[in-house]
């Protein structure tokens, strides 16, 4: 049985094979299969005459081109995706009857789409923004979609406010400026006048909003769901994705430059990592609360602007997802994939989280307009691995050829089939939660505390992280033209931390609040800080600045760096092969023009005996920028002289030495550390 289930991990690939078109070496045809004899000239009435309506190939080709673009997503338009598999560590039978979570070792094919929220499809990927993290599990019971973000909370508590939030955060309608940015008046006016966003805005101004890569950010289901076991017992659950490489970010100046140097930085990183076999891995964790404990916390567990602190409700790691295959076609897969939090399987159900309740309506409605009708589930990327049968018929882009005369229920002509399945047969049954209340448009008083967890978040940050948050608020509010908007937000921040509010006020030219209005919250949650995250040298890109006459030991050092999982990339004045001592040879992969320091995690300069003055000038700029971004710096041989001229060797995270004497070990540790916040920048 287990082998049969694991075969599902391959069945999705085989299903997609049916739709793959390998055009190389083939003769051209129309979409009906008719071979085409001419694709350079349209059919005309004479060589200089008008084109004829009769030219069916021209009309088919042009019509298809005219309709190649589907409406982009209103939010999460800028995305990239990959295929993979999810493997269970331990059975969750105690909590849920979902079959894909029952057997340790069982594998389920998945498709994951990462995205930014605010920008259009053409925007840069390093915007300060929330990141989408949506996973489609192709289970034997149907598709299950875990549609989340890289932040565990959201701006609003009730989905009815979602259009308002997005209208406020999108480019302002009178001039459509700025693109993919929250640094403008309408967004911050929304924040100041909808203070339920206070907790989320702390996350959005933190380093979490500018991740190093998709591979190095957490994912969260955000909403509160239910697990249901075979006995009908229910448990509240929140979902977490934990990156095996840890949670890492870039600095703001680096992010801005990356958007100019390589606006595709995140997608390229994901694509190349999978392509070379460094498969991104995320462990799935769950927080579980029994129904009897629903009201034992000082927050409402259904409030989407609240976390369940991991110190109070531990995250139980139950499996691992590995992304091991890139998409074959971005449009057919990444753009046409349709996620929906309502795509669940038996054993997973909903709660009365008011944001989740609205999402259950919104996603289907969105897919109908984006993908042209009700048959988007039949697109190859959206098709389940299990068969599906119902009485739905026709509509745009219908692919199923339904056989027979019956398309209704109840019926006698087809033996009343397709028939509903009992719960024992795998039929989905909604949890029978008791509901007793009046029809009302209101919000529970338990949702009205907007600041306690914002204070908790602030308390949990390290000093460098707090400094980054202050800088982020100062930049964002500094871009607002209306002084009154800046003042309102600063006044709101006095409900979080007085120093945060006062420092930001001074930076943006408004009146600092005189007193703290923050609730008394003495606790912190270390899990919220990136300070103690996993730190490895694995997949870290190291720019190796090398020139003519390099030391013969340099290739040995590069080999050693690769052995510990790092990715050294040679950077020099010109691409091509250069010669070193004793006949050694290296290929320069990037130049100073194409391999900017912001594209790397670390810099390592070795130089060479025959390098030009221009080489050292370019290397000096490269090193100073990497140093200013707090990155690890290494130097050997002629490179040590450059660092001495720049007065860098005594700084934190600057490692000098040659092939011997422990240099490699120390430099590798520095690369794993990611950043050195305690150094004094130039």
UniProtKB/TrEMBL annotation:
Organism, as annotated: Siminovitchia fortis
Domain Catalase core: 29-417
Catalytic residues identified in the record: 76, 149
Residues noted as binding heme in the record, renumbered to the chain: 73, 113, 162, 359, 363, 370
EC code(s) of this entry: 1.11.1.6
Protein name per its UniProtKB record: Catalase
A UniProt-annotated Pfam family: Catalase-rel
Requisite cofactors: heme
Crosslink feature (3'-histidyl-3-tyrosine (His-Tyr)) location: 340-363
Catalytic activity: 2 H2O2 = O2 + 2 H2O
Taxon lineage: Bacteria, Bacillati, Bacillota, Bacilli, Bacillales
């Amino acid at each position: 049985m287990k082998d049969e289930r694991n075969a599902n991990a391959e069945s999705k690939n085989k299903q997609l094979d049916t739709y793959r078109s390998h055009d190389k070496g083939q003769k051209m045809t129309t979409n009906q299969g008719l071979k085409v004899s001419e694709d350079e000239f349209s059919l005309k009435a004479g060589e200089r005459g008008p084109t004829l309506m009769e030219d069916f190939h021209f009309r088919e080709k042009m019509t298809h081109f005219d309709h190649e673009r589907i409406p982009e997503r209103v939010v999460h338009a800028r995305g990239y995706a990959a295929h993979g598999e999810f493997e269970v560590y331990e059975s969750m039978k105690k909590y849920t009857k979902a079959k894909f979570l029952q057997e340790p070792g069982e594998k389920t094919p998945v498709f994951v789409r990462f995205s930014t929220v605010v920008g259009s499809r053409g925007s840069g990927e390093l915007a300060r923004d929330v990141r989408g993290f949506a996973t489609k599990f192709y289970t034997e019971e149907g598709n299950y979609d875990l549609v989340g973000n890289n932040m565990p909370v959201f701006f609003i508590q009730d989905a009815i406010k979602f259009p308002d939030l997005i209208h406020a955060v999108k480019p302002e309608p009178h001039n459509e400026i700025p693109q993919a940015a929250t640094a403008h008046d309408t967004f911050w006016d929304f924040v100041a006048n909808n203070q339920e966003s206070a907790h989320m805005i702390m996350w959005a101004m933190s380093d979490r909003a500018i991740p190093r890569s998709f591979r190095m950010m957490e994912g969260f289901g955000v909403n509160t769901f239910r697990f249901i076991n075979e006995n009908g017992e229910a448990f509240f659950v929140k979902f977490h994705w934990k990156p095996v490489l840890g949670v890492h970010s870039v600095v703001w100046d680096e992010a801005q430059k990356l958007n100019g140097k390589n606006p595709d930085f995140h997608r390229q990183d994901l694509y190349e990592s999978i392509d070379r076999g460094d498969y991104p891995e995320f462990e799935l964790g769950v927080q579980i609360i029994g129904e009897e404990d629903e009201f034992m916390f000082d927050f409402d567990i259904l409030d989407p602007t609240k976390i369940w602190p991991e110190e109070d409700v531990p995250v139980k790691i139950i499996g691992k997802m590995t992304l091991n295959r890139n998409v074959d076609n971005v449009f057919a897969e990444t753009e046409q994939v349709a996620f929906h939090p309502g795509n669940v399987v038996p054993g997973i159900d909903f709660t009365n989280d008011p944001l989740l309740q609205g999402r259950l309506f919104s996603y289907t409605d969105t897919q109908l307009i984006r993908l042209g009708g009700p048959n988007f589930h039949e697109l190859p990327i959206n098709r389940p691995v299990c068969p599906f049968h119902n009485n739905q018929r026709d509509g745009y882009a219908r692919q199923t050829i339904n056989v027979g005369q019956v398309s209704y229920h109840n019926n006698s002509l087809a033996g009343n089939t397709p028939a509903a399945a009992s719960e024992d047969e795998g039929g989905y049954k909604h949890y029978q939660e008791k509901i007793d209340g009046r029809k009302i448009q209101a919000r529970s008083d338990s949702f009205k505390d907007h600041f306690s967890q914002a204070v908790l978040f602030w308390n949990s940050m390290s000093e460098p992280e707090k400094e980054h948050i202050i800088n982020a608020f100062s930049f964002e509010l500094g871009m607002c033209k209306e002084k009154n908007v800046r003042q309102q937000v600063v006044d709101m921040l006095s409900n979080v931390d007085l120093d945060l509010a006062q420092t930001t006020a001074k930076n943006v030219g408004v009146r600092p609040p005189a007193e703290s209005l923050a609730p008394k919250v003495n606790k912190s949650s270390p899990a919220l800080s990136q300070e103690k995250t996993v730190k490895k040298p694995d997949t870290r890109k190291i720019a190796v600045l090398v020139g003519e006459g390099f030391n013969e030991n340099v290739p040995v050092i590069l080999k050693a760096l690769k052995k510990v999982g790092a990715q050294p990339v040679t950077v020099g004045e010109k691409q091509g092969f250069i010669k070193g001592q004793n006949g050694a040879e290296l290929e320069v992969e990037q130049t100073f023009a194409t391999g900017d320091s912001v594209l790397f995690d670390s810099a390592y300069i070795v130089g060479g005996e025959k390098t030009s003055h221009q080489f050292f000038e370019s290397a000096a700029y490269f090193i100073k920028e990497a140093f200013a971004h707090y990155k690890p710096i290494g130097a050997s041989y002629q490179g040590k002289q450059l660092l001495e001229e720049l007065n860098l060797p005594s700084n934190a995270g600057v490692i000098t030495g040659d092939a011997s004497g422990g240099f490699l070990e120390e430099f590798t540790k520095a690369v794993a550390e990611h950043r050195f916040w305690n150094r004094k920048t130039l």
